[in-house]
Amino acid sequence: MNASDSDDDSYTERSALVPSENPVVPSYRPDPDLDAAGDTVRRAGPAAAAADGGGGGGGGSDPEVDADDEELTLKYGAKHVIMLFVPVTLCMVVVVATIKSVSFYTEKTDQQLIYTPFTENTASVGRRLLNSVLNTIIMISVIVVMTIFLVVLYKYRCYKFIHGWLILSSLMLLFWFSFMYLGQVFKTYNLAVDYPTVGVIIWNFGAVGMICIHWKGPLQLQQAYLILISALMALVFIKYLPEWSAWVILGAISVYDLVAVLSPKGPLRMLVETAQERNEPIFPALIYSSAMMWTVGMASPADYQLTESERFQVCSRCVPGVLQVCLSAGGVKLGLGDFIFYSVLVGKAAATGGDWNTTLACFVAILIGLCLTLLLLAIFKKALPALPISITFGLVFYFSTDFLVQPFMDNLAAHQFYI
Amino acid sequence: MLQGKQEPRQITMNLERLPNEEKLSLCRKYYLGGFAFLPFLWLVNVVWFFREAFVKPAYTEQLQIKTYVKRSALGLLLWVAVLTTWITIFQHFRAEWGEVGDYLSFTIPLGIP
């Protein structure tokens, strides 16, 4: 499979899938410069109701907001971390379980994505390294171009286009990739399955997925679907990215993430700023939301919108994996691109690493990175990239475990030497 | 402030926060959607609205929600019965059907049947 179509959207899918509508409550920076009253007037309905319900929370005076923020950071920090751990872990578990059982995703294939045209089947190490670096450059440029394109579209308010793009991407992920996945699972377990049954299964899975993600559905189902599609996407990457290129790409994308979000001219930063100027939530990106609704200080039951009471919402946009603090109704949000790349790292460790030590080490590294990122987020309270720390730790742990710890432990075991 | 006409899309759905008419409308849409060969949608409908329909204290729309949930459950049971029957038949007779069996098969197991 040339996978050109699928990967045409591969990057944008990351930025694409979920709720086509914006979060009810726009991201609100606890920034003394913003005029709270002005905000209330300008925001759309839900936020207005939210501001009412929030009262002292969101729209209060600035010193109050700051003090509240501090308290909230401490109070809800741990809960947020846990809320993010669970889905990230689940996604990784799905990916690792698939990698270990379904051999399809680890089989060597000569097919490569069109984004990584240079082959790694070369004679010399130097050539191979060069090829992987070139592949990375191409891949990153594609990502940069797509991000800029998306930012431009957003700037010129081509919402319909973005919306359509998202729907197309999610259609493909939900139907085509899951079809392939299902086929491989059946082959692995040597089951006979007929077309009508498969048709019904895929149709149900896909249609309900589209409904849950793009329209309305129960929260847990939506979360489950987002985890599953991230896992599917990660599996595709693991299968079709050549070995060394995958590692270099992981490294490069963390650097890109850092640059795109923090530098003044970064596309992501511009996106965030444009969204804030317009007082809109950032355009529909892949967002996982662990929701909810601690009904602390909620207004009357009739107030059905998310109230912007004093809760922290950690939003991470996937496109570059921006982590942003949104002062809005509860829950934690994480971009799916982050899920995908974390899972790619752990999946690759499971596929090519020595044994479970490596996999576990990478898993732990990513979670530690996530904790640290959230901590930094609570301290700085501005848009932060979510990928760099975790991926760096993950890479460091992978290579050190694979090349240092593993042989060390094997040797110890071989000599029956216990320390 | 803007309610009614402008229906804000929420990223996270919490049934608690919806007004009753919205709940009814959602339940009905899920019920109708299930007719497009989507028993899974009916399952989601039943699970999601079960508490609303049977556990919560009564309110005006609850009766209708109850009927939708019941009908969804019925449809779901029907589908499960049909699918189970078909799968059993297929698994049992696949080898004997020869060509037709292969034509219908998505994956064919290797080895001795």
From TrEMBL, chain A:
Membrane topology, record value: Multi-pass membrane protein
Enzyme class: hydrolase
GO CC annotation: endoplasmic reticulum membrane; gamma-secretase complex; Golgi membrane
Lineage of the organism: Eukaryota, Metazoa, Chordata, Craniata, Vertebrata
Keywords: Endoplasmic reticulum, Golgi apparatus, Hydrolase, Membrane, Notch signaling pathway, Protease, Transmembrane, Transmembrane helix
Chief place where the protein resides: endoplasmic reticulum
PANTHER family, alphabetized: PRESENILIN (PTHR10202), PRESENILIN-2 (PTHR10202:SF24)
Protein name: Presenilin
Quaternary assembly: Homodimer.
Entry GO MF terms: aspartic endopeptidase activity, intramembrane cleaving
Family: Belongs to the peptidase A22A family.
Subcellular location: Endoplasmic reticulum membrane; Golgi apparatus membrane
Biased amino acid composition, Gly residues: 52-61
The enzyme's E.C. designation: 3.4.23.-
Domain topic, free-text comment: The PAL motif is required for normal active site conformation.
Role of this protein: Probable subunit of the gamma-secretase complex, an endoprotease complex that catalyzes the intramembrane cleavage of integral membrane proteins such as Notch receptors.
Region annotated Disordered, chain positions: 1-66
Residues that span the membrane, as ranges: 81-99, 133-154, 161-183, 195-215, 222-238, 244-262, 322-346, 358-380, 386-405
One GO term of the biological process aspect: somite development
Biased composition (Acidic residues): 1-10
Cross-referenced Pfam families: Presenilin
From TrEMBL, chain B:
GO terms under biological process: developmental pigmentation; melanocyte migration; negative regulation of neuron apoptotic process; Notch receptor processing; Notch signaling pathway
The protein's name in its UniProt record: Gamma-secretase subunit PEN-2
GO cellular component labels: gamma-secretase complex; Golgi cisterna membrane
Transmembrane spans: 30-51, 72-93
Topology relative to the membrane: Multi-pass membrane protein
InterPro entries cross-referenced by the UniProt entry: Gamma_Secretase_Asp_P_PEN2 (IPR019379)
Similarity comment: Belongs to the PEN-2 family.
Coiled-coil parts of chain: none
Keyword annotations: Membrane, Notch signaling pathway, Transmembrane, Transmembrane helix
Source organism (scientific name): Dicentrarchus labrax
Gene encoding the protein: psenen
Recorded superkingdom: Eukaryota
Localization per record: Golgi apparatus, Golgi stack membrane
